[in-house]
Design goal:
With about 280 residues, the protein is of the alpha/beta class. Helices cover about 40% and strands about 15% of the residues. The chain is globular and about 50 Å long. It binds 3-isopropylmalic acid (IPM) and magnesium ion. Magnesium ion binds next to α9.
Length: about 280
């Protein structure tokens, strides 16, 4: 974040309002996101976010506040249902990927991840020795994220689900197909998530827009990051219906093992600044 603000200062005049979220907010206020901070974000033109967690706050105690709740609270509180994660390996780093150069060359894809629904926000609970997390999707929720995917597609949309097992995925597939028909020009393909995970490393250059639900998008975007050689390369934009600010953040976490050493790769943060300028300001 420190270098991101330096870059912005070079580019123009921006008014910064710095607020605490995640672990730092837990230390200061006992909660990862205060109402005051959420209100301040609502009042901003855009929210630029640095990573939120660390081992200090890792706990399996269900009652303990977790840094990630701050991020999830922002996404939900700001209605940021559309998460855009572009993956484009830099030519200079083609040999830094664990995958062979000839596999990743030409890769230029965008993960469009649904961000405020699914298993992340369904009913969950722990009762004695049994726990549950519920995955819920409604047609309007699928429709609006599918619209975003088709709007951004250049060649095709690959919709990823688990329709051979999950009811939510069958609903997902039905709605995405309908939205696809309304967007006649753009080809649509459906992939099951296990197959998509495989194809993402075997033929990544074939993808254009990958449209998927919250949890699958979380997992596939970390996988896709390795096409670029490092999780430190991926920026993201989280957008709502346009009535409020978007949120811009690197896909990576807080890298606690190198915190404070001055060696963190700032490129995902710079990319997030670029996305903020393009989509947010
Ligand atoms: C991400 C992160 C978050 C997520 C965590 C920190 C809650 O992994 O943005 O991909 O799961 O969405
Ligand atoms: Mg993630």
């Amino acid at each position: 974040m420190a270098v991101a603000t330096q870059v912005l200062a070079e580019l123009g005049e921006f008014e910064f309002d710095e607020r605490l979220v995640g672990g730092a907010a837990i230390d200061a206020h006992g909660t990862p996101l205060t109402d005051e901070v959420l209100d301040a974000c609502r009042d901003a033109d855009a929210v630029l976010l640095a990573a939120v967690g660390g081992p200090k706050w890792d706990s399996t105690d269900p009652g303990a506040p977790r840094p990630e709740q701050g991020l999830l609270g922002l996404r939900q509180g700001l209605g940021l249902f559309a998460n855009l994660r572009p993956v484009r390996p830099s030519p200079a780093l083609l040999d830094a990927s664990p995958l062979k150069r000839d596999r990743i060359e030409g890769t230029d894809l965008l993960v469009v991840r649904e961000l405020t629904g699914g298993i992340y926000f369904g009913d969950s609970g722990l009762d004695g020795d049994t726990a549950h997390d519920t995955c819920v999707y409604s047609e309007p929720e699928v429709e609006r994220i599918a619209d975003v995917a088709f709007r951004l597609a250049r060649r095709k949309v690959t919709s990823v689900d688990k329709a051979n097992v999950l009811e939510t995925s069958r609903l997902w597939r039905k709605v995405v197909t309908r939205v696809g028909e309304q967007n006649g020009g753009t080809p649509l393909e459906h992939l099951l998530v296990d197959n998509a995970a495989m194809q993402l490393v075997s033929r990544p250059a074939e993808f254009d827009v990958i449209l998927t639900e919250n949890l699958f998008g979380d997992i596939l975007s970390d996988e896709a990051a390795m096409l670029t050689g490092s999780l430190g390369m991926l920026p993201s934009a989280s957008l709502g219906d346009g009535s409020g600010p978007g949120l811009f953040e690197p896909v990576h976490g807080s890298a606690p093992d190198i915190a404070g050493t001055g060696t963190a790769n700032p490129l995902a943060m710079f990319g997030s600044v670029a996305m903020m300028l393009r989509h947010g300001l």
